[in-house]
Amino acid sequence: MDHRFQVNLRGVIDLLSHHLYSSPGVFVRELLQNATDASRARRNLEPAHQGEVRVELIEKQDGGPPTLLFQDDGVGLTEEELHRFLATIGESSKREALEAHRGDFIGQFGIGLLSCFMVCDELLVVTRSVKAEGRETWEWRGRQDGTYSVRPSEHPLARPGTQVFLIARPDAAEYFTHERVRQLALHYGSLLPFPLQLTAHGRTEHLNPTPPPWRRAYESAAERRQALLAHGREVFGMDFVDCVPLRAEAGQVEGVAYVLPFSPHFQSRQTHRVYLKDMLLTERAENLLPQWAFFVRCVVNAQGLRPTASREAFYEDATLASARDALGQCLRQYLVDLATHEPRTLQRLIALHGLSVKALALDDDDFYRLVIHWLPFETTLGMMTLEHYRQGSPTVRYVTTLDTFRQVSRVAAAQGLCIINAAYTHDAALLEKLPRVLPNARVEVFSAAQLPQGLEELTAEEHEGVARLRRIAEEALESFGCEVSLKKFLPAEVPTLYGDVEEGAFQRDLERAREESDSLYASLLEGTQDKAPPQERPQLCFNLRNPVIRRLARVRDTAQLRLSVEMLYVQALLLGHRPLNAREMALLNRGLLGLIESRLGDDEDTGSLH
Ligand SMILES: Nc1ncnc2c1ncn2[C@@H]1O[C@H](COP(=O)(O)OP(=O)(O)OP(=O)(O)O)[C@@H](O)[C@H]1O
What we know:
- By secondary structure, the chain is α+β, with helices and mostly antiparallel strands.
- Helix content is 41%, strand content 18%.
- InterPro entries: HATPase_C_sf, Hsp90_fam, Hsp90_N, Ribosomal_Su5_D2-typ_SF.
């Protein structure tokens, strides 16, 4: 024999309140939404129907708990519908209407009404259907324990519509004050297309007298911009740099994007205030814009996107994906218009939001062509735009790691050589793309090994003077696989320059890993090493303009000279942020101890340690 599942209503309410809804205050959203859905349903039957929603706070004189009344003049419910839709969890009249008018309604899951039980133990619904004959009015009383009753009302309603009464539960009294109800009703319902009235303490207030700011008419573009920016300040509590109108056919989205006045972290995702069919869905929507567009926050209303059951995000589907693309296009067009008509404003925007602009340029060739010249890069000669760079040097040279940049920057700068530090997010990929988009452009990855070639050669006489230094340095560094050269370069304070191609750095890492690993792993690394032999050997270039190097060339003591060379080698590695292998560490230790020893000399106390 088959049995039916029993549903424990308390358990379901607990589930909703703790896991689906962000706060008990969402009952206001659910009731406003039901009221507007009912008005929309009536308008489908009677196109001239205006519709209105009234909320009233009824405070008892005898000190009893306050009551909230939500009242609409929508389609109402028949007795049969009360049993079917109000008393069956998961049943929704709006799902049936899916085919014809699905798009008109916000609700669809048939659970919204349950949210009321977060703030009251009993719900009273008094309703008269447009389909009812005469003034037939029904009362439905639903309780948190899962029981309900239906009976004809002794106070028939004068016109079709629905009244929902909630009597405050003591622990939820905070939701039954004038201030709180007003704040929640404004929060969720200020854009509703039906008049929303709030009555409390004998006074009635119209909460939504004006349409959303992007739908209002303005005298001029400047006035419109001011009004939109003022709205952004009100919603997000900050002064934005600019505002961009948004519109997408897919999902029927419209609204405004606000340009942030600060640079957000490039991985941050901005949260947006999102309305669905004019009702606030969430203030924390994340999935509305393409990833690169993290320089704006938006306020939008969507008529045709699907909410999730919590109604606090959009359901990820093809319509949302198309809407996201279209909104991305609006922002792109904004940047293109700035590039064409207001380049200075674009430059200011790039200074603030360069990362967003760079990310878009990477994805979009036309946009790339338009903005690449204005994008700023760090170079050995300071920050400059690519246009500025290319005026000075037709070939764009860049390094891809910060270590290489540190290694070459002082020497290259002293020689007037401009090299871009493309270690930052997107920079290397953007430069790599340059010749593909602008066929006459030349780009080149610069390696530190190239630097000594551009340095000044020694005279024949100088060559002779440094022959001994060269020989001893070659002997000392041979076993480290490092070549030696002697040149003259600026700045004179830099004694040496360590240069290796990128594979050289890789090779060094391999060697170090091999030393530190067990034999099995070492044989694997051996294989890797065979496959990637270095193109060029690293090189230590001594600077003969440096006073210490000049003195070194005159040192007679071979051991002292060798120790100095070894120390300069280790120093160059450390400055280039190259990890030292075990032998190099030993060199460093030996050198340091030797140095301490030589400085101590004979100046020793012959006391207690002997
Ligand atoms: N004010 C109202 N006027 C007319 N019918 C109503 C009203 N409030 C609720 N109903 C009926 O009760 C049903 C259940 O409402 P409920 O809020 O639980 O779910 P829903 O709005 O259908 O979907 P969702 O869970 O997505 O909100 C509705 O589908 C509708 O038929």
